[in-house]
Amino acid sequence: MSDLPVSDATVLDATELADAVLTMHGRLRRSLLASKADEVTASQTAALGRLLRHGPATVADLARAEGVRPQSMGATVQALVDLGLAERQPDPTDGRRSIVSATAAGRDARQAAWAARNRELAERLAALPEADRRVVARAMDVLGPVVDP
C-alpha cells in the first residue's frame, strides 16, 4: 500500500487511505527524527511533551497516558531527570509517590528540537512546486476534523 503514488489517492477506499496516511506519517516522523541532533529519545520526547502540555504528573499517570508500563516510564523519567529536563518532587498527598515536572531546560530543549524539525520540514516543503505546497496546505485543512472530530 505505501508504494502508491499520491495521485492514486482519489481511487482509494477509506481503509486504504487510512493505511496510506499512517504510513506517510511514520515515514515523515522517522525521516525527521533521523536528522535530529539531540540525545533525547522518542519516548523521552513524548513524555517531556506531555509534561509541558498537561503539567506535572506521576510516573503512573504518564505511563497510562503514553500506553506503556510504569517500569518503562520510570526509566524514561529517570533519563529525563539525569539530563536535567525534568525533576521529581515528593507527592504532598502520598509520600510513596513523586510528581514529575518539566524543568526550564526541558522546555527550552523541547522548543529547540521543535524549531529544528520545523526548519528541516520547511526546507523540504520549500523545495516543492507551489501547486504541491497548496495541496499540502489543503490536506492540513481536510485532516483537521479527522484529528479533532
Tell me what you see in this structure.
The structure is a single chain. This protein has 149 residues and is mainly alpha-helical. The protein folds into two domains: 1-34, no CATH class; 40-147, Winged helix-like DNA-binding domain superfamily/Winged helix DNA-binding domain (Arc Repressor Mutant, subunit A), CATH 1.10.10. It has six helices and two strands. A two-stranded antiparallel sheet has the order 1-2. Strand 1 (86-91) and strand 2 (94-102) form a beta hairpin. The mean pLDDT is 89.
Produce a short descriptive summary.
With 149 residues, this protein is mainly α.
What attributes does this structure have?
149 residues; mainly alpha; two-stranded antiparallel ribbon; 2 strands
How far the N terminus sits from the C terminus, by CA atoms, comes to 26 Å
What's the shape?
A: elongated
Count of distinct structural domains: 2
The H-and-E topology, N to C, reads as HHHHEEHH
Architecture (CATH level 2) name of the largest domain: Orthogonal Bundle
Strand content: 5-15%
Characterize the quaternary organization of these chains.
single chain
Helix percentage: 55-70%
Query: How many β-strands, per DSSP?
Result: 2
Largest sheet: 2 strands, antiparallel
Strand order, sheet with most strands: 1-2
CATH fold annotation of the largest domain: Arc Repressor Mutant, subunit A
Radius of gyration: 19 Å
